[in-house]
Amino acid sequence: AFFKPAHRPLVGKTIVVTSGPTVEPIDPVRYIANRSSGKQGHAIAAALARLGATVRLVSGPVSIPDPEGVSVVHVETAREMKQAVEKHLPADAAVMVAAVADWRVESEWGQKLKKQPGGGAPTLRMVENPDILAGVGHHAERPRLVVGFAAETQDLLANARKKLEKKGADWIVANDVSHEGGVMGGDRNHVRIVSKSGVEEWPEMTKEEVAARLAEKIAEALGE
Ligand code: CTP
Ligand code: CA
């Protein structure tokens, strides 16, 4: 009589989550990457697992531990992340939280680039990486619910709406990263959930709280 019945509305649902940065090699010792601690994505994966979901987390290199109750595939590049995500389809939902590097060096040098005496700096030719979220949003085995994230420094809602449309997502979790010392690497987040039916603003809260609330919202959407 003292036990609270477990609240596990996501039992039987499979959800793919991406988290962390991707890392794009320049040569064997150097890379280009995005700023991302993985805190928000990992917290979401853990929160979904607590609600009973089978969670497949695809993570770039981060310094935090694998979340409990979640199977994790560790990747480095955007291309590896895309391949790992698509291997996990079909799924009931996808939540793409990773800070994917938009560009990579066109061809990685096989040897360490050396400084030349009196020589200048190398010029890097970049090419665009595949868009993993858009790939999932337009996939033949598209999950019923596709959620993306957007960190913006200006025109938050207009940019989020454009991403929603272009990437075939159902929701974009948008956060304003224009202020100093904020979201990046921090423990708190202030988000708006942008969907076709409007914008839902959530008060500022911890990344854990955002994760728990988002997991509940996902459970509700998948329960309909
Ligand atoms: N994303 C992705 N693959 C990429 C780039 C982004 O899956 N190559 C996903 C991110 O995980 C996030 C969403 O798309 O869920 C938005 O990422 P963002 O960087 O804000 O969008 P971009 O389309 O890259 O636009 P920009 O960086 O120019 O604002
Ligand atoms: Ca980007």
TrEMBL record:
Molecular function in Gene Ontology: FMN binding; metal ion binding; phosphopantothenate--cysteine ligase activity; phosphopantothenoylcysteine decarboxylase activity
Cofactor binding note of this UniProt entry: Binds 1 FMN per subunit.
Binding site for CTP: D102, K112, P130, D131, I132, L133, F149, K163, K167
Organism (species): Paramesorhizobium deserti
Annotated region described as Phosphopantothenate--cysteine ligase, given as residue ranges: 15-224
Name this protein carries in UniProt: Coenzyme A biosynthesis bifunctional protein CoaBC
Domain DNA/pantothenate metabolism flavoprotein C-terminal residues, every copy: 10-220
Catalytic activity from the UniProt record: (R)-4'-phosphopantothenate + L-cysteine + CTP = N-[(R)-4-phosphopantothenoyl]-L-cysteine + CMP + diphosphate + H(+); N-[(R)-4-phosphopantothenoyl]-L-cysteine + H(+) = (R)-4'-phosphopantetheine + CO2
Family membership noted in the UniProt record: In the N-terminal section; belongs to the HFCD (homo-oligomeric flavin containing Cys decarboxylase) superfamily.
Gene Ontology BP terms: coenzyme A biosynthetic process; pantothenate catabolic process
Pathway in which this enzyme or protein is active: Cofactor biosynthesis; coenzyme A biosynthesis; CoA from (R)-pantothenate: step 3/5; Cofactor biosynthesis; coenzyme A biosynthesis; CoA from (R)-pantothenate: step 2/5
Cofactor(s), names only, from the UniProt record: Mg(2+); FMN
Entry function: Catalyzes two sequential steps in the biosynthesis of coenzyme A. In the first step cysteine is conjugated to 4'-phosphopantothenate to form 4-phosphopantothenoylcysteine. In the second step the latter compound is decarboxylated to form 4'-phosphopantotheine. Catalyzes two steps in the biosynthesis of coenzyme A. In the first step cysteine is conjugated to 4'-phosphopantothenate to form 4-phosphopantothenoylcysteine, in the latter compound is decarboxylated to form 4'-phosphopantotheine.
EC number: 4.1.1.36, 6.3.2.5
Record keywords, A-Z: Decarboxylase, Flavoprotein, FMN, Ligase, Lyase, Magnesium, Metal-binding, Multifunctional enzyme
Gene Ontology cellular-component annotations: phosphopantothenoylcysteine decarboxylase complex
